[in-house]
Write a structure and sequence with these properties.
Elements (H helix, E strand, L loop, with lengths): L15 H9 L4 H12 L4 H12 L4 H23 L5 H15 L9 H9 L6 H9 L1 H6 L2 H8 L3 H23 L15 H4 L3 H10 L3 H18 L3 H15 L3 H4 L5 H13 L4 H12 L8 H10 L1 H21 L7 H14 L1 H7 L9 H26 L16 H9 L1 H16 L3 H7 L14 H11 L9 H16 L3 H14 L5 H10 L8 H17 L3 H5 L18
Helix pairs in contact: 4-6, 5-6, 10-12, 10-13, 12-14, 13-14, 14-16, 14-18, 16-17, 16-19, 18-20, 18-21, 19-20, 19-22, 19-24, 22-24, 23-24, 24-26, 26-28, 27-28, 28-30
Length: 580
């Protein structure tokens, strides 16, 4: 009740408490009520004669006054919005400030609160004292517009952090849910949505709205993302950093885009990510940005490296690298002679070094190892040549020498590169994804043993396993073969299942999708090997239960096994169309 009349007394307007007091201390209550109505009703002479007419229709006075009040409030809200757009800037804000001064005492009165909030919303600078009062009251803070909250947040990083934190958690969870989704497909994977579609996501849109045109809030969000990236090494924060900037770019918020030194680089890279390829023209642009980092501005490399560490950027750069290597094979050209390829590696290197650079605060591009270009990449090209030679041999008429076997060994140096060089490992993994997508079983089985030990266990990272499981659906028919399953499961997946829960989850995802292709004996041994332990998380147990249920449904019932259907009944003859 008190909230309903909050602040009226300060303005000298009678409220419910005044009426209560009047009625308590008077001898003629009816006369007192009439007098209160006259003093506090709508002071319009022509109205007095019309009110009895409403009484005849049984319309309560409350209903009448409420409708007048609502109508006036709507008019006032419209007027406030109009004042915010008319006349000279100083004049309009002076009017609004005066209005706020007069009405602020009623801010807790529910019926008047929207008007006070509307006035504050249109003021670019609400008086500090009033902001503090709003901030101190939970209900008022909740009710005020985002424009007012921005003014509160920009001087209260902790409060802004509390608002942003749940959104960042939600964002990471959404990314992980996509990576662990039970829908395994080579066509629709983690990297399928276009950049523009991704930034329509709830979290990016909410953050964009919270920031508005406020550079200080934008910087705070970037600081949160850097800190969380350092603390967790989670690369999805790098994606959000790029998506947020491009979301503000879509809305043409020049106040922020012009002061973010990464804007044009991110915009160009965004176009490459959309095409999933870095073409020559854009490669030159990107190189221009990197070469243009001036002395004394090296700190921008920390931000650029975070933009390049976004998995969507790494994916685009790695796919482009594989495509370039194939082109070089066609052209009989060595990697060191291709400036485009060297630029891709330079950007991959900068992206992969993001964490170290931000952690050490040493802002200079990582040095590229010469052997990556002179030994590792030619080795990958030799694998491409092996494939092409084998395919040609298969087509030649076989003479007495018999069929030429596919090369089964891998150079020791290849395995060593995957273990010790991050860029080599990333490119090597993408080459393996490439041959799997081409349904090249021979090449896949040849290179698979090199994945057991890789740099930072990259071969057991969620993004790689998500893509690999999707591509393996193209080799579905191979799962019936003992040799293939032994190499894939025993030789690769099961080596890490017990120590890495995420690998356990990805194997179960794959089997849920392809269990009907696997030989029964192998499936049984896999089911035993993949049984969750007491330490296993809920997600693993849930997936294992789903798999068990699916396998139970596949088992024929005892009745089906023992009884053979009777065929004694003669089959009815069906007339063919011609004999009708």
């Amino acid at each position: 009740q008190a909230a309903m009349y909050a602040g009226l007394q300060e303005l000298g307007v009678a409220n419910g408490e005044d009426l209560k007091e009047t009625l308590t201390n008077c001898t003629e209550p009816l006369k007192a009520i009439e007098q209160f109505q006259t003093e506090n009703g709508v002071l319009l002479p022509s109205l007095q004669s019309a009110l009895p007419f409403l009484d005849l229709h049984g319309t309560p006075r409350l209903e009448f006054h409420q409708s007048v009040f609502d109508e006036l409030r709507e008019k006032l809200l419209e007027r406030v919005s109009a004042i915010a757009l008319e006349g000279k800037v100083e004049e309009r804000y002076k009017k609004l400030e005066d209005l706020l001064e007069k009405s602020f005492s009623l801010v807790k009165m529910p019926s008047i609160q929207p008007v006070v909030m509307c006035v504050m919303k249109h003021l670019p600078k609400v008086p500090e004292k009033k902001l503090k009062l709003v901030m101190a009251d939970k209900d008022l803070y909740k009710a005020c517009a985002v424009e007012v909250k921005r003014q509160i947040w920009q001087d209260n990083q902790a409060l802004f952090g509390d608002e942003v934190s749940p959104l960042l958690k939600q964002y990471i969870l959404e990314k992980e849910n996509i990576l662990f989704s039970n829908d395994i497909s080579v066509l629709h994977n983690f990297f399928s949505p276009s950049p523009k579609t991704r930034r329509q996501g709830e979290v990016v849109q909410k953050l964009t709205q919270m920031i508005g045109k406020n550079v200080k809030l934008y910087d705070m969000v970037l600081q949160f993302l850097r800190t969380l990236f350092l603390r967790t090494r989670n690369v999805h924060y790098c994606t959000l950093r790029a998506e947020l900037l491009m979301s503000l770019h879509d809305l043409e918020i020049s106040e922020i885009c012009t002061v973010d030194p990464c804007h044009k680089f991110t915009w160009c890279l965004d176009a490459c990510i959309r095409e999933k390829f870095v073409d020559n023209k854009r490669a030159r642009e990107l190189q221009g940005f990197l070469d243009g980092v001036k002395k004394g501005q090296e700190q921008v490399l920390g931000d650029l490296s975070m933009i390049l560490c976004d998995p969507f950027a790494i994916n685009t750069l790695a796919l482009s690298t594989i495509r370039h290597l194939q082109d070089l094979v066609e052209q009989d050209t060595l990697p060191r002679e291709s400036p485009d390829l060297l630029l891709l590696l330079r950007m991959l290197s900068l992206g992969q070094g993001a964490w170290d650079m931000i952690d050490s605060q040493v802002f200079k591009e990582p040095k590229m190892e010469a052997e990556l270009i002179t030994k590792f990449l030619p080795m990958l090209m030799s694998f491409v040549v092996d494939d092409r030679t084998f395919n040609v041999d298969q087509k030649l008429p076989s003479e007495e020498k018999g069929p030429i076997p596919y090369p089964s060994t891998i150079p020791e140096a290849f395995t060593k590169f995957l273990q010790e060089n991050r860029i080599a490992c990333e490119v090597g993994l993408y080459y393996i994804l490439h041959i799997t997508k081409q349904r090249n079983k021979n090449a896949f089985l040849r290179l698979l043993p090199a994945l057991v030990e890789t740099f930072s266990d990259l071969a057991f990272s969620d993004i790689f396993l998500h893509l690999l499981t999707g591509n393996l659906t193209l080799l579905g028919e191979e799962f019936a073969l003992e040799e293939f399953c032994t190499s894939l499961f025993d030789g690769f997946f099961l080596t890490a299942c017990s120590r890495k829960e995420n690998v356990h989850r990805h194997v179960l995802r794959l089997l849920l999708h392809l269990h009907h292709k696997v030989a029964p004996a192998k499936l049984e041994s896999l089911q035993k090997a993949l049984e969750p332990t007491k330490q296993s998380g809920e997600a693993v147990k849930e997936l294992y239960n789903q798999l068990t249920e699916k396998l139970e449904l596949r088992k024929p019932s005892p009745a089906e096994v023992t009884e053979t259907p009777s065929m004694e009944l003669p089959l009815p003859t069906v007339p063919t169309p011609a004999s009708r």
